[in-house]
Design a protein that fits this description.
The complex is a heterodimer of chains A (about 750) and B (about 290). Chain A is α+β, with helices and mostly antiparallel strands and about 750 residues long. Chain A has 21 helices and 27 strands. Classes of the chains: A alpha+beta (about 750), B alpha+beta (about 290). The structure holds flavin-adenine dinucleotide. Chain A: It holds the Pfam family MoCoBD_1.
Chain lengths: ~750, ~290
């Protein structure tokens, strides 16, 4: 798609109307995962392993099954497969192994059995009667230890072709990329800084725990209601795990109380369906917070080594990084993503990056906004800050000097199209925050960040009503105000008011396939498909007008919500409004609708620059973030308020990750802090007002120029906050979170 | 599970004496109900003491001392026009507990009897010299707050004993108290270290002091050495350093997810200084 095809003057796009789902959400009328009920419904509960690593010797559920209130007990035997049997391999097998343990339990909290009973209390009581005999095995939870020669092996044969000979079997994927000659580059440098960094695993911390209501008959037909970022992937996965046909399972996505990547897969849904099939009744399953922490998908933890060479004038001569990511007891830690994103903001002659995907006895990691990128940015941007400090360079000027731009060869391979990194750095430099004086005890930090963004399989359909209103059916659950954005984009094409458009998240039986709401793809891909579907409807509207006027259809154009005669016929007829055409559409050829299905490939990459001020109490090591500014390229902000919300959310979650959030495992391999009291996400009073600046450098791959904005915002915060804290404390912080005990210890060692 | 709502403390005590299994009194329930729902403690008997006459009363006695009913909530304490003028440290410690919602239920009694070494109001009560009245099968007796906790989750109360009132001494002249805690966040967190200080001045010189530490030992501590370090001083730098050293020296903490031994020990000293300065300023009648 060429830029000159792109629209740049808008009527609706760029305005800030209330979100269509707002009233339901503030009045409690919105129905979330746990709000579904069905006649005859049973309540499920899941028995979880107390051991980090153990062989399941025997499961005896006879006492639970004997209870009157208990209608079904399931274990692994109630699911589809035998390992690696055709039809269930690769990621499906991993997901099955994760939702219900097979021969071994692989982490504290791993599901081993489940019960359906007539009440939630009865189900929980029944769990206590299930006897499981375990043979406890040695475990490992730390990424570096999991790679050591004597580390317990989590699963033989999990590594793929990419892993070099001689690595521990827990290393399951390997990535290497880059260009140029790093050794030559380091030789040219005036200063080379080399350092190592560690980050702990964090959780997305969505407020709504996983919840679902599943119903599956012995005829292989079923229905599932669940809180998810993608109901088609839930449909496909559940069908595979239960051995039924995909189309026979209809999945409806509830309203979603946060996902951030953590709801892009299934955990309890296949279990509810298996229980339902066995009990022949609908089964509801709702996780509690402790289950969410122990047994859903936190981020990877990471251990990283960085080496960067720089000239006195700030030119980076070479950069090298090794990124080891632990992603739980399954392949999937995004070591490759970390490696590819780490140096992506810079135009480098010599760069080399290596990523490892390492298994350990922890829950299977899931995405958390730009999976893998924040850790790598923390390590790389910390070293850049150190180089600036040692060479006396301004951190924004240094970054401007090295910033990637259109035509730069990205560190991960391709050549960039039009991108907006330089614009974000220039906006940072011009922002009053950057020149505001700091008080004693405060420090300032800067970081850039990059994320790829994604297109993905997308279907949208749009139908016009007789009264001239429109309904848009999309398949991407609304996790960030996307219904508002879709309505604005449809309004822009149709030329009818925003309020006259209703956007619905269709169930899997009502629309073609849609990928998950992830990869910052929704406003980009569902938005593009909405625009195309609306244009499809507009073509038909023009046809009806042409027929009515008796002129060729190519002599009709669509303007401000009306069909208008053009060319030689211009002015011959009065403009015909949309509602006039739909009023008698039944008689002029039937219902008018539009649809679009594709896998759009033009998701533009996105960059951001963050400025953070922090103050450290030198006596207690406690950090307060005193000022925060997010500057990010949105391509085109369809609904600026929700773009700002994404920016602020990324910064808020980044503050938690940087300062206090962490998975803490004991010597016994058990998670120590599986409640919000001890897993410390920021509370409102921990956050300063987060300022935002929307930079708009249009994405050539979208008709309105949209770039995804959901993920880039969490890439710079860890580094920007760490740089601010390090500058305030006068000591480089190399481990996240920078909790007060760690800062105080670093101050003592200074 | 049996639920009772007796009309008197004698009746509450009798119910508790005759109960089998696990018994809990229900004040605000912000510990009991949370523990119940998370399956940490599932009581066999719940004895709700909120229906007893006068349990919400906050009364100033003729000698200037205070009597608080066992169900008086944090919000009721903060809203009281005079209690906080006499005992700002006790009121601010209670006010730190939880959110607005929790404040509407949580009580001093529950905070004390839950037996957490990190309970926020307890160091403030110990520093203030608060006692509790206990009704039991053998009648009524008073006990100092510092003697109630005996270990994490454990109290000196015998089976059938129920706290029936909280007694705060008269403030008297030239006195001030304060409580500070360290938490990694700004709100909704559990103390990693807590310090209560209560003192009295003659001119600029401290004549009486009580210093109490929370979250640094199996129970809240009353630290005599720390009090001695400031008695007879004007809270000059040397006195503050001696106070910090005594506070740190009294610590016997654990290494856990909430803080390391080294961190707790160090920060106990830092907070002791900061708390003492506030109490001192209050005793002088300054706003702090
Ligand atoms: C969200 C949240 C935040 C919190 N934040 C804090 C905090 O910051 N700091 C803090 O210290 N605590 C905190 N707590 C814990 C709790 O709120 C406090 O301990 C509170 O003071 C308990 O009071 P309660 O009246 O609710 O006690 P309850 O739950 O009713 O009772 C607690 C215990 O006291 C016993 N008990 C109650 N009354 C009597 C009596 N008359 N005689 C003998 N025993 C009795 C009960 O048997 C029980 O063992 C928090 C709790 C929540 C839910």
């Amino acid at each position: 798609m060429a830029l000159d095809d792109q629209k740049s003057i808008f009527t609706f796009v760029g305005t800030r109307p209330d979100r269509p789902d707002g009233l339901d959400k503030v009045t409690g009328r919105a129905r979330f995962g746990a709000d579904a009920h069905a006649p005859g419904m049973l309540h499920g509960a899941i028995l979880r392993s107390p051991h980090a690593h153990a062989r399941i010797v025997k499961i005896d559920a006879s006492k639970a099954e004997a209870l009157k209130d208990v209608k079904a007990v399931v274990t692994r035997a109630d699911f589809a497969e035998v390992p690696f049997e055709p039809g269930l391999e690769g990621e499906f097998w991993n997901v099955l192994e994760n939702v219900m343990a097979g021969e071994k339990t692989l982490y504290d909290g791993h599901a081993v059995a489940a019960v359906a009973a007539t009440s939630a209390l009865a189900a929980r009581d029944a769990l206590k009667l299930i006897e499981v005999e375990y043979e406890v095995l040695p475990h490992v939870t730390d990424v570096d230890k999991a790679m050591e020669a004597d580390a317990p092996v989590i699963r033989e044969g999990a590594a793929d072709y990419s892993v070099p000979e001689g690595m521990h079997p827990n290393v399951v994927r390997y990535h290497e990329s880059g260009h140029g000659d790093v050794e030559a580059g380091f030789a040219e440098a005036d200063l080379v800084v080399e350092d190592s960094f560690v980050t702990e695993a964090t959780h997305q911390g969505y407020i709504e725990p996983h919840a679902c209501l599943g119903s599956l008959g012995t005829d292989g037909k079923g229905e599932l209601w669940c809180t998810t970022q993608g109901h088609w992937i839930a449909q496909k996965t559940c069908a595979a795990l239960l051995g039924i046909e995909t189309s026979q399972l209809r999945v409806t996505a509830s309203e979603i109380g946060g996902g951030f990547g953590g709801k892009t897969t299934v955990f309890i849904e296949p279990v509810a369906l298996a229980l339902s099939r066995k009990a022949n009744r609908p089964v509801k399953l709702v996780m509690n917070r402790s289950e969410v922490f122990r047994a859903t998908g936190p981020t990877s933890s990471a251990s990283m080594d960085i080496k960067i060479g720089m000239k006195k004038d700030g030119t980076i001569t070479a950069a090298e990084g090794t990124f080891r990511l632990q992603g739980g007891a399954f392949p999937g830690a995004p070591g490759d993503m970390t490696a590819m994103c780490a140096f992506a903001p810079y135009n480098l002659t010599n760069v080399r990056q290596v990523g490892y995907d390492v298994m350990a006895n922890r829950p299977k990691q899931a995405a958390y906004r730009a999976p893998g990128a924040p850790m790598g940015a923390f390590a790389v941007e910390s070293v850049l800050d150190e180089l600036c400090n040692q060479l006396g360079l301004d951190p924004v000027d240094m970054r401007l000097k090295n910033a990637a731009a259109e035509g730069s060869k990205a560190s991960y391979g391709p050549t960039y199209e039009r991108i907006g990194l330089v614009e974000t750095l220039e906006a940072a430099k011009a922002h009053p925050h950057y020149s505001a004086p700091l008080k004693p005890g405060q420090g300032r930090g800067i970081s850039c960040g990059f994320w790829f963004n994604h297109g993905g399989e997308t279907s949208v359909s749009l139908a016009l009503s007789e009264d001239g209103s429109a309904q848009v059916m999309v398949g991407t659950p609304d996790i960030g105000g996307s219904r508002a954005s879709m309505a604005l984009m449809a309004a822009e094409i149709l030329g009818i008011p925003y309020e006259n458009i209703r956007v619905t998240i269709a169930d899997t039986a009502s629309l073609g396939y849609n990928d998950v709401s992830h990869g910052s793809r929704v406003t980009y891909a569902s938005g593009l498909a909405t625009i195309k579907a609306a244009k499809h409807a507009v073509e038909k509207l023009c046809e009806r007008a042409a027929a009515k006027w008796g002129i060729p259809v190519d002599a009709v154009k669509w303007e401000n919500g009306c069909a208008v005669p053009s060319g030689p016929n211009a002015g011959d007829f009065d403009p015909l409004p949309l509602a006039d055409i739909t009023a008698d559409m039944g008689a002029t050829g039937g219902p008018i609708s539009g649809h679009f299905e594709a896998t759009p490939e033009g998701a533009g990459v996105s960059f951001g620059t963050h400025i953070v001020d922090a103050e450290v109490d030198p006596e207690t090591g406690k950090t307060s973030v005193t000022r925060y500014t997010v500057i990010q390229d949105a391509g085109k902000a369809i609904h600026p308020t929700y773009v700002e919300g994404q920016y602020q959310g990324g910064a808020a979650q980044g503050i938690g990750w940087a300062l206090n959030e962490e998975y803490i495992y004991g010597e016994d391999g058990r998670l120590q802090n599986s409640i919000f009291l001890d897993y410390r996400i920021p509370v409102a009073s921990d956050l300063p007002m987060i300022d935002t600046v929307i930079v708009e450098v249009p994405n050539p791959g979208h008709p309105f120029g949209v770039r995804g904005v959901g993920e880039t915002g969490i890439v710079p915060p860890l580094a920007a906050i760490a740089n601010a804290v390090s500058n305030a404390a006068g000591v480089r912080m190399r481990q996240l979170p920078m909790s007060p005990p760690r800062i105080l210890a670093a101050l003592k060692d200074k | 599970m049996d639920y009772h709502s007796p009309a008197s403390f004698a009746e509450a005590s009798a119910l508790a004496i005759n109960a089998t299994g696990i018994t809990r009194f229900l004040a605000g329930g912000t510990d009991v109900l949370v523990q119940l729902r998370s399956e940490l403690v599932t009581p066999d008997t719940l004895i709700d003491i909120k229906k007893i006459n006068g349990v919400h009363d906050i009364t100033r006695n003729s000698d200037g001392s205070w009597t608080l009913g066992v169900a008086a909530t944090g919000a009721e304490m903060s809203d009281h026009p005079e209690l906080g003028l006499d005992w700002p440290g006790v009121v601010e410690a209670m006010d730190l507990i939880g959110s607005t919602q929790v404040q509407g239920r949580a009580t001093l009694t529950g905070n004390l009897c839950n037996g957490s070494p990190a309970a926020d109001s307890v160091p403030a009560m110990v520093a203030a010299g608060v006692t509790v009245t206990i009704t039991g099968p053998e009648g009524v007796r008073d006990m100092a707050v510092e003697d109630i906790p005996t270990g994490p989750g454990k109290t000196a109360l015998a089976k059938g004993e129920v706290i029936s009132a909280i007694n705060i001494p008269a403030r008297g002249e030239n006195g001030g108290d304060a409580y500070l805690r360290f938490i990694p966040r700004t709100e909704m967190d559990i103390a990693v270290v807590g310090v209560g200080v209560n003192l009295r001045l003659d001119g600029d010189t401290i004549t009486e002091a009580r210093v109490s530490l929370g979250a640094v030992a199996p129970t809240v501590l009353l630290v005599d050495d720390a009090a001695r370090a400031i008695i007879g001083t004007t809270l000059d730098d040397a006195a503050l350093d001696a106070l910090a050293a005594a506070a740190s020296g009294a610590c016997n903490p654990i290494d856990d997810k909430r803080g390391t031994i080294a961190f707790r020990t160090e920060v106990a000293g830092v907070l002791a200084k900061r708390t003492a300065k506030i109490a001192y300023a209050r005793a002088k009648g300054e706003q702090a």
